[in-house]
Design goal:
Elements: E1 2-11, E2 14-25, E3 29-33, H1 38-41, H2 43-53, E4 62-68, H3 80-90, E5 102-104, E6 107-108, E7 114-115, H4 120-129, E8 134-138, H5 142-145, E9 152-156, H6 159-166, H7 179-185, H8 201-213, E10 217-220, H9 227-232, H10 243-255, E11 271-272, H11 280-284, E12 285-286, E13 291-292, H12 294-297, E14 302-305, H13 313-317, H14 320-325, E15 327-331, E16 336-340, E17 344-349, H15 370-375, H16 380-383, E18 388-391, H17 397-401, H18 409-426, H19 441-447, H20 452-465, H21 469-486, H22 493-500
Parallel strand pairs: 3-4, 5-8, 8-9, 10-17, 10-18, 11-14, 14-17
Antiparallel strand pairs: 1-2, 2-4, 6-7, 12-13, 15-16
Length: 512
Amino acid sequence: MLVKVYAAALQGISAIPVTIEVNSSRGVQFLLVGLADTAVKESHERIFSAIQLNGYKVPRSRIVINMAPADIRKEGAAYDLPLTVGILAATEQIDPSRLEHFMMMGELSLDGKLQPVKGVLPIAVKARKEGFKGFILPEQNAREAAVVNNLDVYGVSTLKEVIDFLEGKQELKPVVVDTRKEFYDRQQAFDYDYSEVRGQENVKRALEVSAAGGHNLIMVGPPGSGKSMMAKRLPSILPPLTLQESLETTKIHSVAGRTGGNTSLIAQRPFRSPHHTISNVAMVGGGSSPQPGEISLAHNGVLFLDELPEFNRSVLEVLRQPLEDRVINISRARFTVDYPAGFMLIASMNPCPCGYYNHPERPCLCVPGSVQKYMNRISGPLLDRIDIQIEIVPVPFDKIADQRPAESSEAIRQRVVRARAVQAERFQACEGTYCNAQMNAKQLEAYASPDKEGLSRLKYAMERLNLSARAYYRILKVSRTIADLAGSAKVEAPHIAEAINYRNLDREGWGL
């Protein structure tokens, strides 16, 4: 008897429907075809153990299973459940009449209990698009898949529950999630707030400008000056995720297996802070079975690189293309996958190997030339993609001891949201441009040309400080954001002056 069961394979952050055809005929053999990996082929032992321990007969016939389309690689143990159901239906131990209405995924334990799997959200989206009535999956994954409306999502814990449901012996209630309520309720719950930061008003201002325009930023300062502390609070002032952004972000984390059992949608912008020993593949994604890397897990959020010069140079260089294109392309012999990578890069570093170059109180112990050598670990093309470069000095004691609360993240966030709204209106006709940091030369000329006094000030600064040519365009981008925060339609001299102060590393002689 031939039956068909429906599942899905992941490719990037999208799902491809997989039809599992199971045929039972005379003979004694078990064949599994359709470009299945080792984990899928090993399902034979798990399936037969689960069948036997749940009171069904282990087939004594010839079982041939085809996983179509045969040119798409099937990976992982998530096919255990549909394979088992298909075998039982093909051997006429259960009724196959309802199989066509459901897509199902799940890993089996030897006793028939279902274990959670990765990537259920994109699979649920595909199941709805393909017109399936419902999606059967492990109960630990049910809330994640239930954010997809117009699809009945059934979370089950055992193989027996699935079989009884398919045969009409047991009713299962679809998992219902009030997506919008949960999403908006969790948007404001931040662990860190800028009201906890004493002093460093100039750095907090730079971070506000960075958040308002989507600008990449690097902080340079001695140990203990608060670089990491302030970076961790950046998501609290970024604009709230939209539902579309949240769905895309959750898809990536779902594919990577990083969503918790009680998670429906990710409601806050991601903050990823990889260690400096990270490899190229872990940063950008890939591997023999491609997985999203840190830059994709930071999509719609922040990628924070602490102690930037300590990262392997090749790791930093692979960031250059994703910073421009906002996507990473991973190619293999049989397929190519694209992972989104639209993130803000926030970096921090010491100014020198000992950490105390330009410190107001402690002397630098580095030998001559070592400061510039330390800075040269970061390539010019990478620095070219960082709009804001800000120096930090330690907070004096009277500021640390001051008990008066600083400005809260919510107050800063309101200004950032207003500035982003201005940019959204400005770029609504410009496809692929959403914030000031993404402006090209033509858009800079149209929207960020300074007035006469501002142009004069910019010319004077570039000649006096010997700023590089790349600094010119970065200053215009940042000054446009500062003008948006001030509610100004034009870029004026004060906006130019503030933007110039955010190009510390471009100045001639810095670090010599």
